[in-house]
Automatic annotation (TrEMBL):
Keywords: NAD, Oxidoreductase. This is 3-oxoacyl-[acyl-carrier protein] reductase. PROSITE patterns: ADH_SHORT, PROKAR_LIPOPROTEIN. SUPFAM superfamilies: NAD(P)-binding Rossmann-fold domains. PANTHER family: DEHYDROGENASES, SHORT CHAIN, ESTRADIOL 17-BETA-DEHYDROGENASE 8-RELATED. Residues 13-200 form the Ketoreductase domain. Coiled coil: none annotated. GO terms for molecular function: oxidoreductase activity. Pfam families: adh_short_C2 (PF13561). Belongs to the short-chain dehydrogenases/reductases (SDR) family. It comes from the Bacteria.
Length: 264
């Protein structure tokens, strides 16, 4: 009888994490590093990316950073190759990039719509395509962070919800296209109080008056069966599991991590 419990082990492996300087992306990086892996963070260049990379290096582990605009197709196609060059391999792609604008659907402009689609969907497609090409022979895994908004839509964030719904379809298509060597899955977070959610609260305060954002947050929390917000560590644990060998027989799936807010 084997009494040793299975554990996640990324020793010697490399992960590219887009949106790596954000709340969810940096949490995924910490989880990957804690399991012995190495990470390449990709995000907009600037102090935030530099600071997150420095903080992650402090406990040890190899952490590299690439400042990029993930709305640019050529950049997204080149990014996995740049990440591969650091360690001579690429084992995992974690798509944690994403932007969201809360605005009544009738007021969304063509440029606003396109910006969200470019970053949340088109950029992810080109990054996945290039990364899976690199991993096609040796194998690997892709985990994309979608949203529970993909399950039910959002009247005040139509571009965001549409992009995340399409991301779930892209996940299935990529899982079929790159099997059996590369596994492709997604997670659908509920409410995690990251910078994105702080922006949602501020947008609602501007749109509906002071306190509207907090009231909305309270309403969502009340609808959540577990009666609380999630922590970024809880989401990162699921991402790490899906990226690991413990999930070797899982592909083409989207896992809700939302305290029961959406059930399907």
């Amino acid at each position: 009888m084997n009494e040793r419990a299975p554990r996640i082990d990324f020793a010697g492996r490399w992960a590219l994490i887009t949106g790596g300087a954000g709340g969810l992306g940096s949490a995924c990086a910490r989880a990957y590093l804690a399991a012995g892996g190495n990470v390449v963070l990709a995000d907009l260049p600037g102090d935030r990316l530099d600071q997150v990379a420095a903080e992650l290096r402090a406990p040890g582990g190899r952490v590299e950073a690439i400042g990029v605009d993930l709305a640019d197709v050529a950049t997204c196609r080149d990014l996995p190759h740049r990440a591969h060059a650091f360690g001579g391999r690429l084992d995992t792609l974690i798509n944690a990039t994403g932007i969201m604008q809360t605005k009544p659907m009738a007021e969304v402009t063509a440029d606003e719509w396109q910006r969200v689609i470019d970053i949340n969907l088109t950029g992810v497609f080109h990054t996945v395509q290039a990364a899976c090409g690199l991993m096609a022979e040796a194998g690997g895994s892709v985990v994309s962070i979608a949203s529970v908004a993909a399950r039910s839509g959002r009247p005040a964030a139509p571009a965001y919800a549409a992009s995340k719904t399409a991301l779930l379809s892209l996940t299935k298509s990529a899982a079929l296209a790159y099997a059996p060597k590369v596994r492709v899955n997604a997670v659908c977070p509920g409410v995690f109080f990251t910078d994105m959610w702080r922006g949602i609260v501020q947008d609602r305060d501007r749109e509906y008056g002071p306190g509207a954002g907090q009231r909305y947050l309270d309403e969502v929390t009340a609808k959540t069966p577990l009666q609380r917000l999630g922590t970024v560590e809880e989401l990162a644990a699921v991402v790490a599991f899906l990226a690991s060998d413990l999930a070797a027989y899982i592909t083409g799936q989207a896992v809700n991590v939302d305290g029961g807010l959406e059930m399907d």
